[in-house]
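User: Hi! I'm working on a homework problem where we have to compare a predicted structure to a textbook description. Could you give me the structure for the chain below?
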Amino acid sequence: MSHMAETILLAFANIALVLALSPLFEGILRKVTARIQSRQGPPIWQSYYDLLKLLGKEDIESGEVPVMQRFAAYLSLATILSVALLVPMGSRVPLQSGGDAILLIYLLTLSGISCLIAALAAGSTYSLVGMSREMMAMMTLEPLLAVAIVIGAIHTGSLRLDDVLGGSLYGNGAFPWAGLIMLGVLVFSLQAFLGRVPFDTAEAETEIMEGPVMEYSGPKLALFKYARMAKMFVYSALFVSLFAPWGNGLFYPLSLLIFLAKVFGVVLMVTLIAATHARYRIDQAVRYYAGLFVLSLVALVFAVKGF
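Assistant: Happy to help. Predicted structure tokens:
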């Protein structure tokens, strides 16, 4: 098989994994959360049913700029799927020759920007409140993942994704202070990246009625919800690639199973935290993010010094 054909197959495989399994992982999250809280909970297939129901509804446009609303809905899912092409999922990075660590950082930031565009285009009071909260979170959260990727690039001396996303935060020969600090930082911030309790302040159904996506319904709302599910899967895969990539070198079906098991472990961790914590206020969340940002800068200093 030629290199080009293999690249195309891996790209389709990654997108198929994200689209097919993201609602399943969301269903498992909802089921486990219900069990922890002594409830029956919906069936694990409920997320698929919800998406199909929304896709079949009338596309009502009630915002101030409908064109931008449609654009933001498509952009939210397209960005996450683009990130999936730059993350190894039981194999090498599909588009290794088509991007590097800098492109990955841009796409991760663009994922948050799509939410801001959606809220601004909707124009309602709750949407704008959600947008301001999302913007505050982005300014303190996005640098954390960028610092982790930069540390990997420093350790490897390369921006190539297969180098950076191969456990590079540990791979400098000395005791991996930078990698261990960033592991702690991203473990304690992953919940916020995914917009899950206790850091779902931008949507906060009980306060601002889903904030940025309040004015959305039908297919556009389905795209946003699908993007949120896909984000959990892709960010978990990125976390695994940065800190626990072991097993990717095995033959493909086995490496894929090992990868899915690790992603499931990350999703389970997110679920347990979400089910056992109350939502933070926005001021509490921003102070929390700021503390993690300071730790990430400490890790960056260690990386520059060779640790």
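For your comparison, note the following. DSSP finds eleven helices and no strands in the chain. The radius of gyration is 19 Å. Good luck with the assignment!
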